[in-house]
Amino acid sequence: MSYPEQQNTPARPATVKPGLAIGILIAVIALVAFCITGFATPGFLLGKGDGISLPAPSSSPTPTSVPTSSEDSPTTTTVSRATRPRVTVTRRPVPPPEKGVQVITDFLTKIAGNDKAGAIALACEEQKRFMDDKIDSLLPLGSRVTITRTSGTSRFVLADVAGTVENRSAKGTVISDRTEDGSFCVTTFSIRDA
Q: String of b and e for 40-69 (b: at least 16 CB within 10 Å)?
């Protein structure tokens, strides 16, 4: 059995005609542009004819109206809902816990009286190691600062303070937090020039 001789012709690489490649590229770009425009531009895919028009919201009830002239025009009915009055609940601010305010007052009194150890003793345990440097840099001993306003919750007190620090007007905040046993301690403070 004899096999026909195979010709040793090199395989031709498959090529894409340049015109076909450009046509596919243009079609892809046009499809992407259509999709972007269709989703990004409201109403692009809707016809330009009569569309659905929604009535504008009204704050006061309007009666139903029907045109009285021209038999050619369609009947128009406008329906609006009566708006309910808004109910506003006003809460009276709850004064912050007296114990928290008192700890801040005592802290400021210790600073004014040059009692650094007493002031540090009023700080929360985890903050005591930072209080020595913080007092020296922000609220040096002898500073005369008092509480101007307080706010907070049952868990903390935020006191706005103002006064004199090293013969300069200053203001800032002092915060005290409730501890597990129900007492309060000074967590942090921030004082700056007024």
A: eeeeeeeeeeeeeeeeeeeeeeeeeeeeee
